[in-house]
Design brief:
alpha/beta, 7-stranded parallel sheet
Length: 266
Amino acid sequence: MQDGCVIVTGGTYGLGREITLCLARKGWQVLAFGLEAKQISSIAENAIPTLTKEVQAEGLDVTLLDADVTDQSDVDRVVATALQAYGRIHAVVNNAAIGPLGTVLDTDPDIWDRIIAVNLRGPFLMARAVVPLMREQGGGAIVNIGSGAGWGKPDMAAYATSKGGLFAMSAALALDHFRDGVRVNTVVPGGGGIVGGMSVGRVGGDAANLNPNAPGSVAGRVIDGFDLGNAVNYLISPDGETVSGSVIDVGCFAHQGSSSPLNKPV
């Protein structure tokens, strides 16, 4: 792989953890970070000790940090640690997100602000920190983890708004930094039934409560973070060097705004 590391936000638990492991197993140097404290509508917490044991057992080159993607000083610390440890930042995967359910009528303004902070301010701060570095080194890659909710879904007013904004941010970044060699793409997990800190948190903390009738993927199963990691790996690798401003759907497109007959609520 190319020199330099891949930073994965929200990369210590759930889908992010699997993206981290996938990329590290493919030979990337990875710095993953997330919050060890439990967040609203998620079961993710205290993930670093277990993940540390796993990466050490496999001999993977992974650095793990407890940091908040919405905090400028934490983002600065993450970037400084990455540069000190690896010398260069090749890519950023903006995976950190929270997604409490609710309409505009039953979403508390403070919760709305926190969702927007994690899901939009976080990718903004990361891009603002790394794009100058990537421009100076001749290029790099940013992959944002989106959601079909970005095209609108019921009972997800704040989350859908944040993910719709992320689609727009990705496109704007891709256009603004095309000549800098910084490619920006979005990967969307889809198909329903996905096991992750957010999805399980939404159903009371028990994965058995996830929709058993979710279409899953064309592979005949629900997707996981390793499927996302494979798509991310392509986009940040030399094989994806001409791809920017694109959205890759990993899962069932019927849940990403399609008019397919499979498009049923999950």
